[in-house]
Amino acid sequence: MKRGPKKRGKAGYTIGAVAEMYNLHPQTLRLYEREGLLIPSRSSGNTRFYSPKDLARLEMILKLTRDLGVNLPGVSIVLDLRERMEMMRREMEAFVEFARREFDERSEGQARDAIVRVPPPALIRTRRSQ
């Protein structure tokens, strides 16, 4: 009788289930853990459990190694850069939202307090004498 992947509540998939799902040897997953590429959660009995986020990371590792031929140190660099880029993207989104709120608040205050709206002055170019 063929069984599907073993899953345990919210904890995630066991190492055997993940190895079977991705056609890997469990030692390969342990190697990725030793190299710091994957860090699964652990149960009180020290059993590894892989979350959906871990599986997405594993898929990226496999894409880099299998499809693109990147070695493990290269995978580590790529994953680190991806994490930094994602962090920067979140920071930029937060900054843009902050700037938008500030602009909206200030422009509302200026429009409310203005007697007459005055457009910004036009720039006039003059010739320099030599």
CATH hierarchy: architecture: Orthogonal Bundle
CATH level 1 name: Mainly Alpha
Global shape: elongated
The tally of domains stands at 1
Task: Pick out its properties.
four-stranded antiparallel beta sheet, alpha+beta, 4 strands, Multidrug-efflux Transporter Regulator, Chain: A, Domain 2
Describe this structure in words.
- With 130 residues, this protein is an alpha+beta fold.
- The chain has 4 helices and 4 strands, in the order ββααββαα.
- It has a single domain, classed as Multidrug-efflux Transporter Regulator, Chain: A, Domain 2.
- The N and C termini lie far apart (94 Å).
Overview in brief:
With 130 residues, the protein is of the alpha+beta class. The protein has helices spanning 15-21, 26-34, 52-67, 72-113; strands spanning 7-8, 12-14, 41-42, 48-50.
What topology emerges from the helices and strands here?
Layout: E1 7-8, E2 12-14, H1 15-21, H2 26-34, E3 41-42, E4 48-50, H3 52-67, H4 72-113
Antiparallel strand pairs: 1-2, 2-4, 3-4
